[in-house]
Amino acid sequence: MKSLKLSHEATGLPEPPPGDRPLPTRRTLLDKLGIGAIVASTVGLGYGFLRSLVPNVLYEPPRRSKIGSPERFPEGATYLEESRLFIFRDQRTFQAMSAVCTHLGCTVKMVTLNQPQTVEVRGQRMQEQREFHCPCHGSKYYGDGTNYAGPAPRPLARYRLDVTADDGQLVVDLSQPVDRNFRLTV
Ligand code: FES
Questions:
Q1: pLDDT in tens, 70-83
Q2: Does the beta carbon of 119 sit less than 6 angstroms from any atom of ligand 1?
Q3: How far from 99 is each of 96, 123, 154, 175, CA to CA, in Å?
Q4: Can you give 130-156 as a three-state secondary structure string?
Q5: Residue 119 in contact with residue 128, Cβ under 8 Å?
Q6: Is the CB of 151 under 6 A from ligand 1?
Q7: Residue 47 pLDDT class (50, 70, 90 cuts)
Q8: What is the pTM of this model?
Q9: Is the beta carbon of 152 within 6 A of some atom in ligand 1?
């Protein structure tokens, strides 16, 4: 036998109170979940599209920067914490060497030797008074930055130094690595 469902307006009967209304069926719930998923994926796609309009820019500290006048630097080594650099002065000549370990980037520490030591680096004998040790995984570098122990794969980087024409300050250029024989004479 066919059952016929009539609306309350058609029958003229009053609507049941809210508490007596039938519970949503499983199908109704699934319909609502489906609509929710569509809305969520549309919002996600919209966000992805808007994000793609904004360029990915990595803001890094400037590669070329003034580090002060030559008189600022005493004889020997000076560590510049902000740029993680050692500046070496020998009378009128200057060199810049990175303090960034070439293994995983920790900051190496300068170790002053109790007595000068003679070491052989690339076939050349060299007297050194200091070394650089990395506290993270034990890499060690001779005084000229050459790695000799631990996992460091290469020497500490050296960078070009210049003097500005306008105010005579030293300028280090981190985009220009130089070899260990580079010296700036002022
Ligand atoms: S970061 Fe220097 S030894 Fe690993």
A1: 999 999 999 999 99
A2: no
A3: 10, 24, 13, 15
A4: EEEECCCCCCEECCCCCEEECCCCCCC
A5: yes
A6: yes
A7: low
A8: 0.68
A9: yes
What is the number of other CB atoms lying within 10 angstroms of the CB of residue 104?
12
d(CA 126, CA 134): 21
Q: What amino acid is encoded at 142 in this protein? A: Y
CB of 99 closer than 6 A to ligand 1?
A: no
| Distance from Cα 26 to the centre of ligand 1, integer Å | 60
What does each C-alpha distance from 100 to 42, 94, 107, 157, 180 come to in angstroms?
A: 46, 19, 5, 8, 16
Residue type, 170: L
Q: In this predicted model, what pLDDT tens digit does every residue of 139-161 receive, in sequence order?
A: 999 999 999 999 999 999 999 99
Q: What is the pLDDT of residue 32?
A: 73
Indicate if the pLDDT at residue 1 is higher than 50. no
